[in-house]
Amino acid sequence: MTAPLHAPQRQFAVHDDCLQIGALALPRLAQRVGRTPFYAYERGHIHQRVAALRQALPAGVQLHYAMKANPMPALVHMMAALVDGIDVASGGELKTALDTTLPPARISFAGPGKTDAELACAVAAGVLLNVESEREMERIAIVGERQGLTPRVAVRVNPDFELKHSGMKMGGGAGQFGVDAQLVPALLRRLGQLGLDFLGFHIFCGSQNLAAAAIAEAQARSVQLALALAAQAPAPLRLLNIGGGFGVPYFPGERPLDLGALGESLALQMALLRAASPATRLVLELGRYLVAEAGVYVCRVLERKVSRGRVFLITDGGLHHHLAASGNFGQVIRKNYPVAIGNRLAGGPRETVSVVGPLCTPLDLLADQMEMAKADAGDLVVVFQSGAYGLSASPAAFLGHPAALEVLV
Ligand SMILES: *Cc1c(COP(=O)(O)O)cnc(C)c1O
After folding, report:
1. Per-residue confidence (pLDDT) for residue 9, from 0 to 100
2. Among 251, 261, 319, 367, whose Cα sits 20 to 30 Å from the Cα of 330?
3. InterPro entries this protein is in (predicted)?
């Protein structure tokens, strides 16, 4: 018997009472993993997601994985075989990406504070550096001279527009990311003098966006801006990375992104770009959209406690593994992630509970007065939409509890 699942959970199968992850029922998976808490990421779901994107997007658009969304090495290795490139944001991520089968030329490195050691590693490996400031460009040139290599660079532009309705804005206005659009022409002149290998532009405006029209507008403006700036570049535009920002629904009332609409508007941009600059590769870089819905976080109920009429499920997992679900990763008003009792999905009595972790802080909250199946010690709590910005974005050392495990199934 199968109970209706609330929207974000529908991508997983349910058998009898239990959530199925990959081929296994949740309690069996928990047994295999050996202990809770753990994250499980479903390969099949990631494959489907990439296939759906390829289907919806115009031919020729290249897909990159922004690995800060989920840097688990096994997942990054799998992703390397599915996408056209990987975007990294630190020397550590660069090392993981270089360990995959992907050619180094398909790796790009962005981030406003790259050390000389990181630049040296990137130049030596032949990865693309997204230049974030004039000073950084000078440092890249010095590194290249020292190594006798010509660094491959793209200029990250901080545009004079923003991506509206984003969960997080990373472009438009003043900020630490990229070079302000009006300063780019002068920087391009200097880039030519330095003899760097110019590939193109990187324009990333924001994250977690569910409004296809807003994304389409930012993409159109990005193409326009890139073509205008390209006229002043020392070499033809070979690469244009227009970011991504594709969001996933987390909360009641949120709807999945309209991929069809995005595909149509991008086809238009692709045609414009092809007409003006036929040899330019158009790249989308996505993190969350590729992996968030493929992942769950699983912890076990240690105790069911009643305090002044309210029920608390106290679990072995919490914000130290999953800061985002606790509401402390950039949320202004805390909302519940989709949470369920993963081994009691087929009806039975229900109650309103708060799911909390073991930490000595009231911030350690995974669900605040949410209705779910009535549970007790030993039951498994599942937090859905947990494949992105989960474990690696959480303060694992806080209070010294054991680390969460991660499995790719
Ligand atoms: C974080 C980041 C991404 C990924 O963002 P998502 O919202 O996870 O898709 C892509 N590009 C850059 C430059 C980033 O900093």
Report:
1. 64
2. 261
3. Ala_racemase/Decarboxylase_C, DCO2ase_PEP1, De-COase2_CS, De-COase2_N, Orn/DAP/Arg_de-COase, PLP-binding_barrel
Task: Tell whether ligand 1 has an atom less than 6 A from the beta carbon of residue 290.
Answer: no
Is residue 291 a contact partner of residue 46, using CB atoms and an 8 Å limit?
yes
Burial 28-67 (b: 16+ CB within 10 A, else e): ebbeebeebbbbbbbeebbeebbeebeebbbeebbbbbbb
- Report the nearest atom of ligand 1 relative to the CA of 156: 13
Domain covering 13-42+294-408 assigned CATH 2.40.37.10 in the classification: yes
Is pTM beyond 0.90? Reply is yes
Give the pLDDT of residue 167: 81
The pick from 62, 70, 285, 386 for probing ligand 1's pocket by mutation, whose C-beta has the most ligand atoms within 8 angstroms, reads: 285
Calculate how far, in angstroms, residue 167's C-alpha sits from the geometric centre of ligand 1: 12
Is residue 288 in contact with ligand 1, taking CB distance under 6 Å? yes
Give dist(CA 205, CA 52) in Å, integer.
Answer: 23
Architecture of domain 71-286: Alpha-Beta Barrel (3.20)
pLDDT of 289 reads 98
The whole-number pLDDT of residue 337 equals: 96
Instruction: Please tell me the predicted confidence (pLDDT) of residue 2.
Output: 42
What are the residue ranges spanned by the domains of the chain?
A: 13-42+294-408, 71-286
**Ligand 1 geometric centre to CA of 265 (Å):** 21
* Residue bearing the CA closest to ligand 1, atom 6: 287
